Amino acid sequence: MTREALTGSRIRERRIILGVKQADLARQIGISASYLNLIEHNRRRIGGKLLLDIAGVLGVEISALTEGAEAALIAALRDAAQGARMPDAEMERAEEFAGRFPAWADALSKSHRRIAVLERMIETLNDRLTHDPELAASVHEVLSTAAAIRSTASILAEDKDLDPEWRDRFHANIDADSRRLAASSKALVGFLDAETGEAVTSSTPQEEVEEFLAARNYSFEDLEAGAVQPADAIKDAPELTSVSARQVAEDVLKRIVQDSERVAMPKLERALETVGADPVALAEHFRVSVPCIMRRMASLPKLGLGLVVSDRSGALLFRKGVPGFAIPRYGAACPLWPLFQVLGQPGHVLSQRIQVPGRADAVFDCYAAAESVGPMVINVPPLIEATMLIVPVPGPDQDSDAAPQEMGASCRICPRRGCPGRREPSILSAGF
Amino acid sequence: MDKHVLLVEDEMNIIEAIRFLLSREGWRVDTHSDGATAVEIIRKLRPTLVVLDYMLPGKNGLDILLELRNDPDFVNLPVLMLTARGQLRDREQAEKAGVSRFMTKPFSNTEVVTAVRDLVQLAR
Question: What residues does each domain of chain A span?
Answer without folding.
Answer: 4-110, 133-195, 204-262, 306-432
